[in-house]
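pinned: reference chain
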Amino acid sequence: MRYALTVKIKALPETLRGSLTCDQGVEMREWKQVAIDAGIDIFFCDPHSPWQRGVNENTNGLLRQCFPKGSDLSLHAEHDLDRVATELKDRLRKRLAYAKPIEAIEKLLLQ
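pinned: its structure tokens
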């Protein structure tokens, strides 16, 4: 997880690499090394406080449509996971006035 997350973070444009907020899952046990390797600040929400990470909770719900809770993502090839991520970025969101997340990100990148 540490290596894969670091690679994905470093692939983002610098303007999108401000920080990362996570829950208290064991998958982030090597968070200090990710922060060093990716050059990013990492924060954690309080335990049992999903309201502190609304985007994460919403995205988790969308991911559950493709991968049921408890799915072993290591069984999927990286290109399959990237395909799902692309589908989510290309999906209209009410929160974005029915724009696609990719469109909102493009606006940030052009500033």
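why pinned: The mean pLDDT is 89. The radius of gyration is 15 Å.
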